[in-house]
Amino acid sequence: MGNLRAGLLGIGSMGRHHARVLREIDGVDLVAVADPGGDKFGVARDLEVLPDVESLIAAGLDMAMVAVPTAFHEDAALKLAAAGVHTMVEKPIANTSEEGERMAKAFAEAGLVGAVGHVERYNPALQELRRRIEAGELGEVYQIATRRQGPFPARIADVGVIKDLGAHDFDLTAWVAQSEYASLSAQTTHRSGREHEDMVVATGKLANGVMVNHTINWLSPMKERLTVVTGERGAFVADTSTGDLTFFANGVIPTEWEAVTAFRGVSEGNITRFAFAKREPLRVEQEAFRDAVLGKPADIVTMEQGLKTLRVCEAVLESARDDRTRTF
Q1: Mean pLDDT throughout 192-200?
Q2: CATH number, position 266
Q3: What is the DSSP letter of 45?
Q4: How far apart are CA 233 and CA 120, in angstroms?
Q5: Are 101 and 246 part of one and the same domain?
Q6: Calpha distance 159→162 (Å, rounded)
Q7: Taking a C-beta distance cutoff of 8 angstroms, is the pair 9, 17 a contact?
C-alpha cells in the first residue's frame, strides 16, 4: 500500500505548521494545498495553491486537514465527507453545536474518520499527567484548575477567548479527569473593543465530583499555560508551554504545637520535576490521525468529543450572559 494522499485547506498561521508536519511524518504525502488568501508564509513549495475545497478534493485525497477560520469548518467538512475523505478540522469543531452535529453525523454515516485538532491533549506534560493520575499516583482527585492567559493574538478574528483558548482547557480537563462536565458558571468581560469576549472565569464540577476552575484571557502581558490537579497525595502542575510536569507531594512534619496538630490539613513535602520524552504535540496528533485513517488503534479527538467541548463553550457563554449556572 502506498502513502496516504493528504490535502491541507488553509495555510495561514496554523496551517503552515500542519504543512510542515504532514511533510515529515511517515506514510503520508502532502499532495495538495488550498487557501483563497494565497500563501503568505511560503509553505506550498512546489505545490500549486488551489483556491477552494472543491479543487482540493479534485486532487484525489485519502485524508485532509482543515485549518481555515471556524466559520468555514462546516462547509468544508461536509464537502470532504461527501467526497469520502477522512478529515481533521482545527478546534473548535464548528461555530455552533448545530453545525458540529451535522458534521459529526456526516462522517459517522459515511464511515469516515472525523477528528478535531485539540492539540493540547498531545502535550507531553498532559500525556504524562493523565498516565500518572490513571495509575493512582495522586490518589483521589479533588480539583482541576487551569490558567491560560497572555497577549491578544492578532490572527483571531472570528471567535472570542472562550472558543479559542477555553476550548483547550475544557477539553483537556475532561480528558485528564476522564469525566464530562456536570455544571459550570461563568463571568466574562470585553475590554479590547471587539464584539467577542476577551476574558473569562468559569467554575463548576465534573460528573465524577471533581471541582474545576478556569481563568482564561487575552489581556495579560504574562503568557501562562498551567494545569494544576490537586488530590489526596499532593498536586501535579503541568506547564504546557514548556512541556514540564512537577509533583508537589503532601508532607508529614511532626509538630508539638497543639493548635497546629488539631488542624488536619497538609504540609509541604518533596517537589519532583519529572523527566520524560517530549515530542512535538502537533506531530503526535497528526500521527494519531494517520493511524486512525489506516484503521489502527489511535487516540484521536473524535468529532463527537469535539462537539461536547463546543457545547461546554456555549454553556459558558450562556452562563455569563444571564448569570446562571448551566448543567449538562
Answers
A1: 88
A2: 3.30.360.10
A3: T
A4: 25
A5: no
A6: 8
A7: no
